[in-house]
Amino acid sequence: MPKEFACALTHVRHEDVFLEKWIAHYGAIVGRENLHVVIDGDDWEPTIDLTGIRTEVLLDAPRRRIQNDRFIAKQMSGRANTLRKRYEHVIRGDCDEYVVIDPEAGLDWPEALAELGEDGYVFALGVDVVQGPDETASVDPTQPILGQRRQGFVADGYSKPFVISRWANWAGGAHRLLNRNVRMSAHFTLFHMALCDRTIAKARMEARGGTAQHPSFVDHQTLRLNAIADAGPAPLDYAEARAIGLSQFPVEADGTPATRPRKSTDPRATDKGLPVIIPDRFFGLV
């Protein structure tokens, strides 16, 4: 029996705003009936409509960050590899991450996924979207975020292996695949939206327990919130930043292949990545 084209898989904890976006985005690509949502914990319930979506509740996830990342990586890898028996491609990512095809490529999803080839995986170039200092209005979640938010960082940390067509296992945080080198896509871009709106980010942290969470989560979430703080350095041209990321993220300092994306050595890079203004061609896609 031939495999179905593709499915999308995510896990979620206190994420109604981004989960609703995730469902709309990937439902349009693979069909709502091919969405798989793993709900982290039985101490909360999503308030959005999950009709027609395959859901399950995952219990016993540890609440320390490193242990949680490893646990979730193992659990989601197992599910992705099982789904791969039914689908040609399994898209896997956090529900605040949305992969798009760069409109300049002129490709549809079946054409773009042919890039995986025999290797069976690819990394999307990551853009960490932030609320800029001049973007004072809150995001309207019923409308596309790109366009409401125009600033971001081309980031090694969010350049992630988002899809597989062969057996593979993600490592903690899904930033790499075990025993696989980085293969950057020529046309896929991953927009990470956790910091697109300070109000949403703060509400998300509070819903997860605020400062009552394990300190490893509090410290990480507070550090990320502080990334919205100021104007930062002057942005690079997006095409230049993209070219730097595609050439530098996949290699170690000595030029050998990297097993996870490495930071840019460009002197204009910050700890968050290469600052950019997101081109208009992406507006409305997420």
Automatic annotation (TrEMBL):
The lineage of its organism: Bacteria, Pseudomonadati, Pseudomonadota, Alphaproteobacteria, Rhodobacterales. This is Glycosyl transferase family 2. It comes from the Bacteria. Residues 250-271 are annotated as: Disordered. It comes from Roseicyclus marinus.
